[in-house]
Amino acid sequence: MKNPMRRKIGSRVPAQIALVPAVMVALVVYCGSTLWTVWISMTSSRMLPNSNFVGLRQYSSLMGNERWSTSVSNVLLFGGLFVAASLTIGFLLAVLIDQRVRAENLLRSVFMYPFSMSFIVTGLAWRWLLDPTLGIEKLLHDIGFASAHFDWIVRPDRVIYTLVLAAVWHASGLVMAIMLAGLRGVDTEIWKAARVDGLPVWRTYVSIVIPMMAGSFATAGVLLSTSVVRLYDLAVAMTNGGPGISSEVPAKFVMDHLFERGNVGLATAAATTMLMTVIAVIAPWLYWQSRQRAAGKLT
Amino acid sequence: MTAISTPSGRKPKHTSTGRIGLYALLLISALFFLTPLYVMLVTSLKSMPEIRLGNILSLPQHVTLDAWFTAWSSACTGLTCNGISVGFWNSIRILVPSVIVSISVGALTGYTLSFWRPRGAKLLFGMLLIAAFIPYQVFIYPLVRVFSQVGLNNSLPGIVIVHTIFGLPTMTLLFRNHFAALPMELFRAARVDGAGFWRIFGQIMMPMAVPILVVAVILQVTGIWNDFILGLVFAGRENLPMTVQLNNIVNSTQGERTYNVDMAATLLTAIVPLVVYFGSGRWFVRGIAAGAVKG
Amino acid sequence: MIRSLAAGLCLGTLLLAPVASHAQTKPQPKAEVIHWWTSAGESAAVKVFADQFTKAGGIWVDMAIAGGVNARTAAINAIVGGNPPTAMQFNTGKQFDDLVENDFLVNMDSLAKSEKWASIMPAAILAAVTRDGHAYAVPINIHGQNWLFTSNAALAKAGATAPTNWDDLFPALDKLKAAGLIPLAFSGQKNWERGLFNSVLAGMGGGEMFTVFWGKRDIATIKSPQFRTVVDTYRRLHNYVDAGAAARNWNDATGLLIQGKAGMQFMGDWAKGEFSAAGQTPDKEYGCTVLGAKSVSYLMGGDVFAFPKQKDPTKTATQMMLAGLLLDPATQIAFAQKKGSIPVRLDLDTSSLDACARKASGWLADPKTQVPANELLSPPALTGAVEDLISQFWNDPSMTADTFIARLASTMAQPF
C-alpha cells in the first residue's frame, strides 16, 4: 500500500491543513457524540440526560423489549427487499430507457421526481392508496372485482411490504440514474463484439455488462443501505409503526424514546446498539476493500 | 436535451412487437410512479366537502385553485395566517451558503483523501463512512450543548455548519470515489510541473469534477431544502425554514385538517428542488457516469 | 474552490446582516411563546391570548411548531442552549418533570396564591402543575379525552338510539352493523388505541381504578376481575371497527360520522372542531356524551404554559405579566370557545359555550367526576411502554387477555 513515489512528493502540510475541518468534525462531532451517547446509555436519563450510572440496565431492558426486536427483524427484512428491489427495478428501468426510446427526458424525470419530495405528505398519499376502504381495493370493487384484496397496509403480517413498496417508489429513480450512467459508460465495442458472437441480448447484459457495472451497483447499494438504517420518516408518515408494532423500525424506536417518550437512556442504548452493528459490518468490508486495493484488484 | 450521451445499449431491432412491449413496460412503470402524484394533485384541486366524500381517485367535480392560494399565502401556521411563503426566503438564505460550504468541504476532503493520503486518511474515511449510517437526530442534543458553548446556537452560521457536518460523509464519499477513478499519473505529472496542493485542486481536479459537483449540488439542495428538524433546532427563531411552516400546516395533531391545502403546500415546497433537479438532469447522469462507476 | 468558499462565506455574512439589525430589542415587553396550535381553530384560540397581551402593552412573538414532540424538542434545546423562550406550552401532566428537577422553570407560587388557584380549579389539575408543593406552570384549559360522539344520521338509519351507558352501547353497535354501517369509527394509531382503552378503563372501571392503574401501578388492581372486564370489553369493541381503521387519521374517522357512514367514535373534545368545520352542531347533527359506571368519569387533560428561567430580570417581569393574563374570566371563556375545550376555572358562567362543553362543566361541578388523564398520572416513558402493549393487544387477536394482563403487570413493575 505504501507508495514510495508518493512519499517523495513534496510537503504534506497543506493536505493536513485541508483535512482540519473533516478531522475536527469526525473527532468533535462523531467521536465526541458517540462517546457521549455510549455514556448516556449507561445512565438512568429520562427526558434530559443525567449522570446517574446504572450500568447495563438500559441494554437489558432493550433486549427484553418486544418492540425493539420487532424493529430489528423488520429493518432486516425491509432492507433486504428494498435494496434488492430498488437495484433491480432501477437497473431494469435504466436498460429500458437506454433502448433509444422517445421522450427519454420526460420518462427519466417521471421516475426521478419522487426522490425530491419529503415523505411527510407523500406518505399520506400512499396510505390513502393502500387503504382498503379508500384506495386501490375500493376502486377494484367499484369496477366489479368484488373479491379483489389489497389490504396489506392493515395486516400486521404484511404491512412491512407496503413500506418496501413506497420506499422503492422513492429511491429507484435515483438508482436508475446511476445505472443509466453506468450503462453509458460501457464501451460500445462490447456490444458489437457480442453481436458478432451471436450472444443473445439478455446474456450480454447478464454475463458482460452487469459485471462491468459492479461500481455502479456498489455506489447505489451504499446509498440505499444508509437510508435503510436511517429509515424513519416513511414509517412515521405511512403507518406510524402500526398496526400495533408490526411496522416499527430501529431509527423510529430511537426517535420516539429520545423525544416523545422522554426515555433518553433507553434511546441511547438502542442508538449504541445500532452503531455497533454498523461498525461490525462496515469495518471488515473496509478492511477487505483495502486489501483488495493493495492487491491491485481495485485502484 | 434529446441525448444525454449517445445511448449505448444494443441498437433497437425495429420489430414492432418488441418496441410495443418496451413502451408498454415503460408506460406501466410511469403509471406506477405517477399514481401518488396524481392523488396529491387531484386532492389539492378539490374542496374539503368533496374530499370528505372519500373518493381519493376521482377527478375533482369543481376544479378550484383555492387550496393553492391558501397554502402559499393564507393558511394558518400558528398565530399568523400567511401560508408557507413566510419561510421561503429563510429557506433560501439557509440553502445557498449551506450548499456551497458543505460541498466545498466535502470536495476538499475527498480530494485530499484520494491523492495526498496523509497519515490516518483511511481511518478518517472509515469514520466518515460509518457516520453516513447514523440517524443524525442522535447528535442533536450534544451538538446543541457544544454550539451553545461556542455561541453558534440559533444563528445562520450555526445552521450552515450543522448542514456541513451532516453533509460531510456523503459529499466526501462522492468526491473521493470520483477522484479515485482519475489516473494517478495526472496527479504526478502536475506535481512534477511544480503545482502545489491548492493549484492541483483548483485548476486541475475541480474542473474535472464538474459533473460530480452537479450531483453533489442536487443531493444537497434536495436534502437541505427538505430538512425540518435541524433548521428548527439550530437556525434560531428568526431563521426558521419553510419546512417549519409546511409542518405546521400538515402536522397539527388536534386541530381540524385541510388535506387540499396540505397537498398544495407540499407540491409548492417541492418546486425548488424539482427545478434544480430537472434543470440539471442531463448533468446529473453524466456526473454519476464520471464518478460513481468506480464504487 | 477557495473562491467559491470565500464567496459562500461572503454571501453568508451578507445574508446575515439584516437579521442582526432586526434583533435589536424594543423597550416594550416582548414575549416569545412556543406552542403547537397551528390549525385554523387553534390559531384563533391562541390569538385570544396574544390580543390580551398586546392590549396590555406587550409584543407577542409567536413560535408555532406543529406536533407536540417537535415543539418540545425545539423548546427544550433552546433552554439547554441558553436561549429560553418566554413561555412554552405543555400538555397538562408530566412532560415538564425533568425541567423542574433541573431548575429550569420559574416558580408560580405567588400567582397561584393571589389568583386562589386552589379554590377555582380542579384539584387534579392544580396537582399536575405542582411539584413538591410549588406551582411551576399555569393551567390554561381542560380537554375531555373520553367523549363518545354519535352521528344522528347513522343512528336514525340503523334505528338505534345514542347509548347513555355501557349496557346500551353494544346493542346500538349491533344495530349499526346490521344496517351495513361502520359501527365504530376508529383510527388505528397507537395513541388512539390507548385513548380507546382509557375510555373503557375510566368508563367501566371507574375513576378510581383509572387513577390506581396509571398512577399507583397497583398490580393487584391489574389482576382483579373488574380489570379483566375492562380488557374483555376493549377487545370486544374490535369487532365493530372496519378494515380501513388501521390506516386512518382520527379526523378521517370523525369524517365518517359527519358523512353518516359510521355511527360512533370515542375521541377527545377536539373532534368538535371537525364537526363545526363541516357546519355541524352538537345535539343536532351529532351527539356527545361520556359513558360512565356509577357516575361519569371525565378524563381531564389539557394544556399549561410554563415559563423557563431567564437571566434578564426584565424578561422575568414580562413572564409574570403574561402569566397574569391567562386566567382572566373573559379570556378563559373566549379561549375555550375557540379551542373546543372548557375553561380551567370552574367558577365561570359557561352559558356561551357549546352544548358539549356545557355538559362537561356541569359534570365537573361534582369533584367525583374529575379524573386526571393518563398524562397527569404516568411519566411519558411508562405511558409509551404500556401504549406499545395495548396496541399489540388490540391488533393481535392471538394475544389472550391473560397474556396481556400478565405483561401489563410486568411492565408496570419496571422502573420508570
In short:
The complex is a heterotrimer of chains A (299), B (295) and C (416). With 299 residues, chain A is mainly alpha-helical. Chain A is built from 15 helices and no strands.
Description of the structure:
Chain A has 299 residues and is mainly alpha-helical. Helix content of chain A is 71%, strand content 0%. Chain A has helices at residues 4-8, 13-18, 20-40, 57-63, 66-97, 104-112, 119-130, 136-142, 159-185, 188-196, 201-212, 214-229, 233-238, 250-260, 264-294. Chain B has 15 helices and no strands. Chain C has 416 residues and is α/β, with parallel strands linked by helices. Chain C has helices spanning 2-22, 40-55, 68-80, 97-101, 109-114, 117-120, 123-128, 152-158, 166-178, 190-216, 219-222, 225-237, 250-258, 272-277, 313-325, 329-339, 355-364, 374-377, 380-395, 401-412; strands at 30-35, 59-64, 87-91, 130-131, 134-135, 137-144, 147-151, 182-184, 262-267, 286-289, 298-306, 342-343, 370-372. The longest helix of chain C is centred in the middle third of the chain and has 27 residues, at 190-216. Chain C starts with a helix and ends with a helix. Chains in contact: A-B, A-C, B-C.
Category by helix and strand content of chain B: mainly alpha
Determine the strand fraction of chain B and express it as a percent band. under 5%
What's the shape of chain A? flat
Helicity of chain B, as a percent range: 55-70%
| Biggest interface between chains | A-B, 106 and 109 residues
Mean pLDDT rating of chain A: 87
Beta fraction of the residues of chain A?
A: under 5%
Q: What oligomeric state do these chains adopt? A: heterotrimer
- Please provide the count of β strands of chain A: 0
Could you describe the largest sheet of chain B, including whether it forms a barrel?
A: none
Helix content of chain A: over 70%
